[in-house]
């Protein structure tokens, strides 16, 4: 959003380039660190939890690896950005982004002299958009408002009469995980949790 909003809008509302740059660095940096920690945990789980690993396609793993790399590159840009707090580099990126929306073939010339890490981050960012239709990332184009209105068919575990643990356990390789208790649709469950 920040890159695609025309500079004239920021000028109109009185937000200077320096203020926008520092805000983007601070807010984006904090959000980026949180996302990096979360993505690392998810990637570790997907790679090293045997049950999750068995049900993951190559595409599922690739998407997480690319997102992890993208976050790493994005956070790395901050090392360069702290030396450009007046926002002059950010103005170049904004010019490049608005050039893209106008199909301006000369847009890339604006960012030719910026650090390599920005370019790697941009190439990978655009690649993530490119692979979206072929991976699980496709869900970013859906607006899941229908979830608010759908009937309750969430699957939950019933309480076992025998007192046997209902903790999910690993089934034989290649099969779905087995559960200690019966699995029943929520609408039939006596005590939906
Ligand atoms: C085509 C897509 C993308 C483009 C063009 C892009 C561009 C940029 C640019 C120019 C910066 C430097 C901003 C500055 O100077 O302050 C940046 C920073 C950053 N980007 Fe991206 N990015 C893209 C996608 C992504 C994605 C998908 C993620 C997360 C997975 C991400 C995470 C970050 C982070 C954490 C920072 C550092 C914090 C900040 O400066 O705000 N970027 N990005």
TrEMBL record:
Top enzyme class of this protein? oxidoreductase
Kindly state a single biological-process term from the GO annotations of this entry. anaerobic electron transport chain
Localization per record? Cell membrane
Is Lipid metabolism given among the entry's keywords? no
Q: What is this protein called?
A: Nitrate reductase gamma subunit
Q: Does the keyword Translocase apply?
A: no
In the Enzyme Commission scheme, what number(s) does this protein have? 1.7.99.4
**Top-level taxon in the UniProt lineage:** Bacteria
Q: Name one GO cellular component term.
A: plasma membrane
Q: Which GO terms describe its molecular function?
A: electron transfer activity; heme binding; metal ion binding; nitrate reductase activity
Membrane-crossing ranges are 22-43, 63-82
Q: Which keywords belong to this entry?
A: Cell membrane, Electron transport, Heme, Iron, Membrane, Metal-binding, Nitrate assimilation, Oxidoreductase, Transmembrane, Transmembrane helix, Transport
Q: Which residues bind heme b?
A: 121, 139
SUPFAM superfamilies to which the protein is assigned, alphabetical? Respiratory nitrate reductase 1 gamma chain
Give the membrane topology, semicolon-separated if more than one. Multi-pass membrane protein
Question: What region holds the NarG-like domain?
Answer: 1-158
Quick one: where's region Disordered?
163-193
Organism for this UniProt entry: Aminobacter aganoensis
């Amino acid at each position: 959003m920040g890159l695609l909003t025309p500079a004239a809008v920021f000028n109109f509302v009185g937000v200077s380039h320096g203020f926008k740059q520092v805000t983007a660095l601070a807010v984006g940096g904090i959000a980026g660190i949180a996302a990096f920690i979360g993505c690392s945990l998810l990637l570790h789980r997907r790679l090293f939890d045997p049950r999750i690993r068995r049900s993951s396609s190559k595409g599922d793993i690739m998407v997480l690896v690319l997102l992890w790399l993208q976050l790493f590159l994005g956070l790395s840009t901050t090392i360069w950005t702290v030396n450009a707090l007046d926002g002059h580099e950010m103005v170049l990126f904004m010019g490049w982004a608005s050039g893209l929306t106008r199909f301006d073939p000369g847009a890339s010339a604006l960012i030719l002299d910026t650090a390599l890490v920005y370019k790697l981050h941009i190439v990978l960012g655009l690649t993530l958009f490119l692979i979206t239709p072929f991976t699980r990332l496709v869900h970013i184009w859906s607006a899941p408002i229908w979830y608010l209105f759908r009937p309750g068919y969430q699957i939950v575990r019933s309480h076992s009469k025998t007192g046997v643990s209902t903790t999910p356990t690993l089934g034989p390789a290649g099969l779905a995980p087995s559960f200690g208790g019966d699995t029943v649709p929520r609408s039939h469950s006596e005590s939906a949790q």
